[in-house]
Structure formats: structure tokens, C-alpha cells
Amino acid sequence: MTSALAPFDRHRRLLFTVAYQMLGSVADAEDVVQDTWLRWSAAARDDVLDERAYLVQIATRLALDRLGSARARRETYVGPWLPEPLMTGGAAVGGAPPAPDPDHAAELGEQVSLALLVVLETLSPAERAVFVLREVFGMSAREVADVLGRTEAAVRQMGHRAREHVEARRPRFDTDRRAQREATERFLAAAAGGDVEALLAVLAPDVVLVTDGGGKAKAARRPISGADKVARFLAAVSSEGLEIPGLRVELADVNGAPAIVGCQGTEPFLSMSVELAEDGRIAQVLLVRNPDKLRGIARPPERPF
């Protein structure tokens, strides 16, 4: 068992991140990592030349198996479905154990942005796997072909389609991290104060707000578009929040970027991530309130076996 555990532990965070990128769910990614361990520990490993590739192959195929059933469940989901936010820096919400340290930024940094995960939802399962393995983790076409059991030509074709699809839907410019934090701070100050005029000053005219309550927390059933509607919705939410005992709202590093998180006592209450327009105003707000989706901002995503 010890001989199996050491190499698995070396790649555990990578396996979690691959599964999280594939599924957009902290809980499902944890389950994939555990199932990967079960298969790895039971396998005959003497002939395994590349432990990392072998483990990634297991995790990716397990994630693909789960993706079909996950998408079926999302068809009956109440309201908009958003990926689960993941704490990627600093202390976790509610005094929980700290999140992964900054040394893992390459695996748990900007490549797991909530906005990108939303875009990945529009890819086919195979295209998503190719994009994650090729574009995020830099695996070669041959390596990805081995993982998926496809030809290199098929992998290159899927990768090209996926890349074009993602590039057409993701922000067309890079946001400086300091600018992102400052914009998020201004947005938090305006939202916390329930000041409609202040919110209008930081929101792009065509801003879109997507809220995910899953039928378990108060949220809009459809995306809200336009600065005036979004500002008034957020002002109303802020007013209600003032009446919630022990609610604390602050900035944290979520999915590799500054974001707003809230907790009530020791329990996570919300996560709000924003994307900026080119002029520095808020172009997109992703608000997660479903309590089942907040475990990733309450504690580190993996658990020991």
C-alpha cells in the first residue's frame, strides 16, 4: 500500500484539478480522485512507465463517465447552473483550514476561472477533455490520444474546434490582477452599501448577472441583463443581507482571482466572482448561493484516504 500511495500523493492535486476542470464540481472531483486511488491501488503497477500519465488517464476516463450523468441532472436543475467555486489562496471561509499554498498556482490558478468553466460547459465531453489536457496542462496530442483512446489526428481536430469555441466566448483581453482586485473592491463597497448609483458606476451597461441557488437558496431563475436591473437586484440582496445575523462578507482568492465570499458563522453563505470589460467595469457577475456548491470555499478540496 505504501508503494502505491507515494506516487499517487505526488499527483493527487493534479488529478483533482483535471477532474474539477472536467466536471465543474468539487464534490464530483473528490469522488473521481478517490475512485482513481481505488483503481490505482488495485492495479498491477510493475509495467507502468509513466505514473503521471497512467493516473491522468484513469481520472480523465472516470470524469468522462460522470459527465454524462451530471449533464442529465443539470437539465432538471432549478434555475441557472454554475460551476462550484474553489478557494485557491488565503484562508478559507469561516476559519476553515487554509487553501492550497501558492506553489500550486500553475495547477489551481487562473486556468480554473469560474468564467472559463462556464464556457467549458458548452463543449462536448470529448472536446472538453482535449481542451483541459492540451490547453491547460500542456499534454501533447500523442499523450491525450493515449488517455482518450483516440487517434492523434482526431485529438488535434477536436482541440482546434474546442480552442476556437472557447476563444470566441472568453474575454478577449487579459486583466491585470491588481486591476481585478481594485475593481472587485469597488464593486464590493458599492454592493455592500446597497448604493444603486455607486453600483451603476462600476457596472458595464450590458453587464450580465447569473445567480445559482439550485432551488435551495434565494436566487433569480434567469440571468439578469443590463446595469440598471443588475444594480437594483444587488441593492435588494444587500438590504436583505443586513438582516442576516452573523453574516460576514470579504474578499478572497477564488478560482485564481479576487472574488467576494460570505459566511454566516462558520458556514459559507455565498461566492461572487466578476469578469471585467476592457474599460475596467464589471461585465459579468457569477453569484453562487446553493449551499451544496459552497464546500470548495469552506475547506481544502481533497480529503485523505
Written description of the protein model:
- By secondary structure, the protein is of the alpha+beta class.
- It has two domains: 1-89 and 123-168, Butyryl-CoA Dehydrogenase, subunit A, domain 3, CATH 1.20.140; 177-297, Nuclear Transport Factor 2, Chain: A, CATH 3.10.450.50.
- The chain has helices at residues 2-23, 26-42, 51-74, 105-108, 114-120, 125-136, 141-148, 152-169, 177-192, 196-202, 227-241; strands spanning 87-89, 203-212, 224-225, 247-254, 257-264, 267-276, 282-288.
- The protein has a seven-stranded mixed β-sheet.
- Helix 1 (2-23) runs parallel beside helix 3, helix 2 (26-42) packs across helix 3 (51-74) and helix 9 runs antiparallel to helix 10 (196-202).
- It is globular.
- Mean pLDDT is 87; it is low at 91-110 and 299-305.
Query: How is the biggest beta sheet arranged?
Result: 7 strands, mixed
Order of helices and strands: HHHEHHHHHHHEEHEEEE
- Going by CATH, the architecture of the largest domain would be Up-down Bundle
Considering DSSP H and I runs of 4 or more, what fraction of the residues is helical? Answer: 40-55%
Strand content: 15-25%
Secondary structure tally, helices: 11
Q: Give the class from helix and strand content and strand pairing.
A: alpha+beta
Low-confidence stretches are: 91-110, 299-305
The mean pLDDT is 87
Q: How many domains, as an integer?
A: 2
Radius of gyration equals 20 Å
Domain RNA polymerase sigma factor 70 region 4 type: 114-165
Organism: Blastococcus haudaquaticus
Subunit structure: Interacts transiently with the RNA polymerase catalytic core formed by RpoA, RpoB, RpoC and RpoZ (2 alpha, 1 beta, 1 beta' and 1 omega subunit) to form the RNA polymerase holoenzyme that can initiate transcription.
Domain SnoaL-like: 185-254
